[in-house]
């Protein structure tokens, strides 16, 4: 089931965020993610966030700011089991256009977004990490 984030979900969602970033972005020092943990927890309550829950356990979430996808994160043990696709399909039904940034070194995510119909529009540099990234866009047809 996909539903809106509730206040009681914030700690679990923030843990998923941290675990995913530490695992997926090993090319960025762990301290960067750990230092931003409290800020992310604070921002979650102000963002448009949807969680995927099964058996009363949050298994993933997607965060948005308008048509910009701030991030999509799935528990490690639930990755490649369709949770990310379910979250993406849920958002695609509600938006006409979606934009996101993804690190160029994150090949798995780039592959996922390509499969979901996103196209690379430009390259850039994340000023916070110094890492190269792509801006990718999806539009309803």
Shape: globular
| Strand residue percentage | 25-35%
H-E order = EHHEEEHEHEE
Q: Main sheet: which strands, in order across?
A: 1-2-3-4
Which segments are poorly predicted (pLDDT under 50) over 5 or more consecutive residues?
none
Strand element count: 7
Number of alpha- plus pi-helical segments: 4
Q: What composes the largest sheet?
A: 4 strands, antiparallel
Q: Classify the secondary structure makeup into a structural class.
A: alpha+beta
CATH architecture: 3-Layer(aba) Sandwich
Helix content: 25-40%
Mean pLDDT: 95
- What would CATH call the homologous superfamily? Gcn5-related N-acetyltransferase (GNAT)
Please give the domain count. Answer: 1
Here the CATH topology equals Aminopeptidase
CATH class bucket: Alpha Beta
Kindly report how far apart the N and C termini lie: 26 Å
Radius of gyration: 14 Å
Described by its quaternary structure, the protein is single chain
Structural summary, described in words:
The chain has 141 residues and is an alpha+beta fold. It has a single domain (2-139), classed as Aminopeptidase (3-Layer(aba) Sandwich), CATH 3.40.630. The chain has helices spanning 10-24, 30-44, 83-92, 107-115, and strands at 2-4, 48-54, 57-65, 68-74, 97-103, 119-125, 132-139. A 4-stranded antiparallel β-sheet has the order 1-2-3-4, sandwiched between helices. A 3-stranded antiparallel β-sheet has the order 5-7-6, with helices on one face. Strand 6 (119-125) and strand 7 (132-139) form a beta hairpin. Helix 1 (10-24) packs antiparallel against helix 2. It is globular, with a radius of gyration of 14 Å.
């Amino acid at each position: 089931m996909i539903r809106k984030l509730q206040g009681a979900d914030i700690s679990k969602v923030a843990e998923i965020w941290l675990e995913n970033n530490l695992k997926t972005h090993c090319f960025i020092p762990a301290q960067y993610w750990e230092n931003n943990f409290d800020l992310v927890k604070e921002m979650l309550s102000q963002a448009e966030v949807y969680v995927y829950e099964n058996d009363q356990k949050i298994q993933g979430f997607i965060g948005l700011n308008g048509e910009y996808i701030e991030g999509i994160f799935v528990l490690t043990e639930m990755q490649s089991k369709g949770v990310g696709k379910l979250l993406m399909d849920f958002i695609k039904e509600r938006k006409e256009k979606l934009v996101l940034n993804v690190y160029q070194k994150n090949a798995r995510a780039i592959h996922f977004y390509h499969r979901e119909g996103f196209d690379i529009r430009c390259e850039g540099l994340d000023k916070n990490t110094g890492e190269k990234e792509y801006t990718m866009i999806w539009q309803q047809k």
